[in-house]
Amino acid sequence: MKVTYYLEILSSWCVWGEPMWAELKRRYEGRAEFEWKIALMNPQDFPASREQCDWFYRRSGGTCMRSPVKLHSGWFEVSRKGDYRAPNLVAEAARDFGFNGDEIRLALANAAMRDGKTIGNMDTAIAVAVAAGGKKLNAGKLRSASESQSVRERVEASTKEFFAHQINQRPAFILTDRIGDKAVFSGLVHFEPLAATIDAMLADATAYAAHEAHHGKPPTK
Hints:
By secondary structure, the protein is of the alpha+beta class. The chain has one domain: Glutaredoxin, CATH 3.40.30.10. 51% of the residues lie in helices and 10% in strands. It is built from 8 helices and 4 strands; from the N terminus they run E-H-E-H-H-H-H-H-H-E-E-H. The protein has helices at residues 12-27, 50-64, 85-94, 103-113, 122-133, 139-146, 149-164, 191-215; strands at residues 2-7, 33-38, 172-176, 182-186. Strands 2-1-3-4 form a 4-stranded mixed sheet, sandwiched between helices. The radius of gyration is 19 Å and the shape is globular.
């Protein structure tokens, strides 16, 4: 089966969901395929000020997650007017250089929400990604890819795909299996609901395979 994770680099709820994502990948390694995709937030979805951003962080991290760590709002730039595509484009472009895992996007998210770096600026986002990628990432080549039409189109396509599921909260997780089942989770960051659903879907797929092994494929008529 497959688990697709839709995220926005600067979504604080995606930050809170990362431990769950890592645990799912660990527990179901070899039994499920995992992939993340960018789902850009609309400009109006971003905070209007650092004060508002901090209020959101107190709600999500403090009240909801009981986290001892407070996220940093220093990444916020009022002059940007909600245009924070740069880190998302950089994370997507890094795939072209073999970085299909989580390391680059996590480095970008942590640089912003842990360290307060203004990764909405392309130069800053590139520098963070190159530092995380080491010798495998060249700043010039990564910038060219990040600013390319092909990468922009990939990000736009995955964002449209996200909205096509009739959801608007990130993180979102789409679970699909080989027998055609699909489960959609939007906005949840806790491990148990997704794990229970994955277990159920794997069990159903196994049962279908066992039935086919004993009784063959269904009659055509």
